[in-house]
Write a structure and sequence with these properties.
By secondary structure, this protein is mostly helical. The protein is 67% helix and 6% strand.
């Protein structure tokens, strides 16, 4: 492991990409501590003390603590993810956008541009809802969270939060292009990991004062380690379909029969389903938390982690996005056609249409298993932890994203090392990418 880390600094291009990524993440963490003007920080902190364990606590986890302090990065990257979801769904529904997605690089750039515009629109709507809600909030002594409410404060908040989200979106794209990749995922990863030291300190303090039983803390720690081990085991799992290639003669050369395999991951969609599902639920529910209307408040409370309404919708969205994202990224008909063109076939399956149907059948079963796995990992620990009344939100969703993104990042760094004839992080073991 130490030698592999040393090898990173022996490759100029890889070293430059790693330092660029770290620099961008450092800028992101600095922005998470720059407060939005016109806010009483003490009164706002009191409000979030009461909101721990709710959906606001989960949103604050994804923003790396930026929402709790209402910093310039308070909205985080979620508006961009919501916009991406909308345009991926529109690709299936609207023929013109579907046609645009099939036009290669130029079409993808156009859709990316539309996604950016959608991010700005969603950020404005969300920021306006938050600014209006903040004006009606009070601190423990009845003091206003916003000392000078009005349209001046609302416009300033909308501009500040929207600009912050746009800047995060730009950083994510730059990290994907000039860094080690997965820019958006790394930003979410950084927000989650940044909360770990605070959670550890709070847990130790509460345990020392007897407010948090020691056996509860030990149980939660063991549960997290078990979930992490399960995530690593399943993410590395795959179904290998054997592919046989008949003897071929190309020009004057003869190629003998060969056997290969087509690897299909158990979790083809990766960490996308829980991120998308969280974004869909959090967008309206976050605004509802800031609206001082009893009926809206009760609806927002029902969408708290650990509540059966929230968990039901969460699982439904996870299953939907598992199938949707897998269908977008893997086309059985195209794969079957490519196998047929290269003279290959799956034993016992006719090339062409029957191969496509067989791949679709296998993929459907794998996706179902993957959806169940993600649902259990994301929901079960959250229910247990919310019932244990821990002083932080760090459920299965956070663990899945953190471990999944970590594995992807290590896999990408390792691929750079191996292509330049350096040993990877683990001698004799190739870390399998999840995509």
């Amino acid at each position: 492991m130490i030698s592999a880390l040393q090898n990173i600094f022996r490759i100029p291009d890889l070293k430059k990409r790693v330092f660029y990524t770290l620099a961008m993440l450092a800028v992101y963490r600095v922005g998470c501590h720059i407060p939005t003007p016109g806010i009483d920080s003490a009164a706002l902190a009191h409000f979030f003390e009461q909101a721990r364990g709710t959906l606001l606590g989960m949103f604050d986890m994804f923003s790396g603590g930026a929402l709790e302090k209402l910093t310039v990065f308070a909205l985080g990257i979620m508006p961009y993810i919501s916009s991406s979801i909308i345009f991926q769904l529109l690709t299936v529904v609207i023929p013109s956008i579907e046609k645009l997605s099939k036009e290669g690089e130029s079409g993808r750039k156009k859709i990316t541009q539309y996604t950016r515009y959608g991010t700005i629109v969603l950020s404005v709507v969300q920021a306006l809802g938050i600014s209006i809600g903040l004006e009606s909030m009070t601190g423990p002594a009845g003091e206003l969270v916003v000392p000078s409410p009005g349209w001046g404060f609302r416009i300033m908040t909308v501009i500040t939060l929207t600009a912050g989200t746009a800047f995060i979106m730009w950083m994510g794209e730059q990290m994907s292009e000039k860094g080690i990749g997965n820019g958006i995922s790394l930003i979410i990863f950084a927000g989650i990991v940044a909360r770990i030291p605070v959670a550890i300190i709070n847990s130790y303090r509460l345990t020392a004062h007897g407010e948090l039983p020691l056996f509860v803390l030990i149980f939660a720690t063991v549960l997290m380690l078990a979930v992490i081990a399960g995530i690593v085991f399943v993410e590395r799992g795959q179904r290998r379909l054997p592919i046989h290639y008949a003897k071929r003669v190309v020009g004057l050369k003869s190629y003998g029969a060969q056997t290969s395999h087509l690897p299909l991951k158990v979790n083809m969609a990766g960490v996308i389903p829980p991120i998308f599902a969280s974004s869909i639920i959090m967008f309206p529910a976050t605004i509802a938390n800031f609206i001082d209307i009893p009926m809206v408040k009760s609806i927002a409370q029902s969408f708290s982690p650990g509540n059966w309404v929230y968990e039901l919708f969460y699982v439904a969205f996870i299953v939907f996005f598992c199938y949707f994202y897998t269908a977008v990224t893997f086309n059985p008909s195209d794969v079957a056609e490519n196998i047929k063109k290269h003279g290959g076939y799956i034993p016992g399956i006719r090339p062409g249409k029957e191969t496509s149907e067989y791949l679709d059948k296998v993929l459907t079963k794998l996706t179902f298993a993957g959806a169940i796995y993600i649902s259990v990992v994301c929901v079960l620990p959250s229910i247990l932890i919310s019932n244990l009344k821990l002083p932080f939100y760090f459920g299965g969703t956070a663990l899945l994203i953190a471990v999944g993104v970590g594995m992807d990042t290590v896999s990408q760094i390792e691929s750079h090392l191996i292509t330049r004839n350096y040993e990877g992080f683990m001698k004799g073991v190739r870390i399998k990418g999840r995509r």
